Amino acid sequence: MKKILSLLVVLTLIFAMTGCSSKPDEPEKAADKPAEPSQAEAEATQTAPEDMTVGFIYVGPIGDGGYTYAHDQGRLYLEEKLGVKTIYKESVPETQEVEQEIRNMVDQGAKAIFTTSFGHMDYTEKMSKEFPDVAFFHCSGYKTTENMSNYFGRMYEARYLSGIVAGMKTQSNEIGYVAAFPIPEVIRGINAFTLGVQSVNPDAVVKVVWTSTWYDPAKEKEAAISLLDQGVDIIAQHQDTTGPQQAAEERGAFSIGYNTDMSTMAPKAYMTAPVWNWGPYYVAQVQNVLDGTFKSEAYWGGMKDDVVKLAPLTENAPAGAAEAVDAATAKILDGSLAVFAGPILNQAGEVAVEEGKTLTDEEMLNMMWFVKGVEGKIE
């Protein structure tokens, strides 16, 4: 009997040891899959609004009346809605200085940092790896890391609508466009604007002048003047300042702004503008950080998300423009109008988008060609 009992004990130990060592790769595979945080874990990572500091790094001054001003309005909206503390730094160039400003903000307790210019991207990516416990958000770029999102808006939708206004207003059928840099973001906007123009006025053309600046009021105004000297009667822009608007006003022309409602800057010229509405996005993302539910993503919201929209038309807009814009807006919102749906011809008159096809997000994000009707080169 003792021998039997001893044998049973030995067998039990063998089975126990076998069970502990069988298929050792299975637990490792399971460990590779990140587990969803439990409610207790999520609650443990929550932060009270009064303990949250959020940093913003701007490429221009908050008083530019355009791009940086729009972001700063979003910051103020964030403060109002969530009660968090925000800090910001104006006029940070697209250089290594971004890294130092990020370090300064982390030292001040920032747990979320938004960098707002395309050229801030690589520096933000580097810092996100240095500070893994901080949530980073980069505007207009394409890179992400485990704790860094990128975000932008489908401004081309509002650009198309503003093109309708310009196409209905022009008498010379020549519209000027003051453009910043020849990158997909800017090219996509020029093309969308031109398609909007041609949807109501197939004979109109859009003349492009590059400034190689984001924020240089004098240079951007000079570029607009050069276009006005060529006979354009409307000025549109992809710039951070109101310089082009002021040039149009001084020369008795009309204008389409950008970034914010620029009606007070050129009341006799300005008709409307594609504008940013960053506040709701900032609130949603910071709330995620507060709740401990932040996850890195690539965000590209559109008019349906209220991130981009067309500013109210002024009395300078042509008769019938409001109705035409409203009709096109409804179609964009219900999905029946895609700005880059074929057939679309390129600048050389060749088919770039076939009938029945629509450009993918990837194709739009990498756009480096002009549609027919654009006069200018991608330099």
From TrEMBL:
InterPro entries linked: ABC-Purine-Binding, PnrA-like
Renumbered residue ranges of the record's region Disordered: 22-47
Low complexity composition bias: residue spans: 36-47
Organism: Fusibacter ferrireducens
Keywords for this protein: Signal
Pfam families: Bmp
Name of this protein: BMP family ABC transporter substrate-binding protein
Basic and acidic residues bias spans: 23-35
Start and end residues of each ABC transporter substrate-binding protein PnrA-like domain: 53-313
Leader sequence segment: 1-22
